[in-house]
Amino acid sequence: MVAGEGARRKAEARSPDGAVKVTITEIAREAGVSVPTVSRVVNGRSDVSPATRARVEDLLHRHGYRRRPAAPGTRAALLDLVFNDLDSPWAVEIIRGVEEVAHEAGVGTVVSAIHDRAGAARQWMTNLRARASDGVILVTSALEPGLHDELRHLGVPLAVIDPAGRSPVAEAPTVGATNWAGGMAATEHLLQLGHRRIGFIEGPPRLLCSRARLDGYRAALDAARVAADGDLVVPGDFYPESGFVGAGRLLDLPEPPTAIFAASDQMALGAIEALRRRGLRVPQDMSVVGFDDLPEVRWSSPPLTTVRQPLSDMGKLAARMLLDLARDVEPAAPRVELATELVVRASTAPPRRA
């Protein structure tokens, strides 16, 4: 070896910021596995045992391993779509919108859920760091500040659908719907039918969309000079079980409501089931309104009156924002709200006369 060659190799083993790089070979040696096994973990392959994957990912994270960056002007051709949970039909509608735009652009979509499993968010970040991404769409999700910082450090653009509180990164564009206007329209519809005691099953308070729907409900009551009754507002979480429980609480009041506005279609369906089990008919005995306009509610019994929010279009817009950001094109507006629309079907009617 000529003089100075060892120093040159040491310099090459460092990144521009002076941090020591590590190779897949070194990770494999330290983990006691083969180089192909490490490669499979880096590329997100599933054919690795959980214990081995955990050991390798821990070493990748500890050493700050990053895949070799793509050549200038190239992209990863991959978008990350991240939910808290995937067990809701509205998630499918958002996925459909994102996938349509991604497919047209020749980009793949990786869908992840990060809420229910311990360490899932950091596991997702480890995978992202290893395989690269053109951008991340967070849907009603919250990441710990350290993970936000890692996204920024990696230069991965971020967009948010229905943010959980304030935008998780100050510069991240957000996409939502006119939830306040939708909540007001649903309540006004019931008021116009003659209802004055209107129960409300709310969504998770941490979400801006939930609070906006509740505020719209209250604003409609106030505009109609109908006194708000705190007992008529019960908690929910957007899922059917909470609609079932919430409707039961409303029915057990000394003076039950004559109508229920549920802040999601799934909770509305849960409420209808609770009414059915009490021997009450919809809408003859109780009117019910939902929020979302999921495909299945037009086939419910009776078909559900609801507020349509354009979930698929929200996914499309967020995906287009990310693809623009990946090309260093700033979005036209940092916050976009798509219009909601009241869809009247057969689950609402004037209140039954005493």
Any chance you could write out the topology, listing elements then pairs?
Elements: H1 5-12, H2 24-31, H3 35-42, H4 50-63, E1 78-83, H5 89-104, E2 108-113, H6 120-131, E3 135-139, H7 145-154, E4 158-161, E5 174-177, H8 179-193, E6 198-201, H9 208-223, E7 233-234, H10 240-251, E8 259-262, H11 265-277, E9 287-292, E10 305-308, H12 311-326, E11 335-338, E12 341-343
Parallel strand pairs: 1-2, 1-3, 3-4, 4-5, 5-11, 6-7, 6-8, 8-9, 9-10
Antiparallel strand pairs: 10-12
Round the Cα radius of gyration to an integer and report it. Answer: 25 Å
Q: What is the string of helix and strand elements?
A: HHHHEHEHEHEEHEHEHEHEEHEE
Shape, principal axes of CA atoms? elongated
Q: Helicity range of the residues? A: 40-55%
What is the count of helical runs? Answer: 12
Mean pLDDT, rounded to whole units?
Answer: 85
Main beta sheet: 6 strands, parallel
Structural class: alpha/beta
Strand order of the largest sheet: 2-1-3-4-5-11
End-to-end distance, in Å? 99 Å
By oligomeric state, this entry counts as single chain
Q: List segments where confidence is low: pLDDT < 50 over at least 5 consecutive residues.
A: 1-20, 68-73
Strand content: 5-15%
How many beta-strand segments? 12
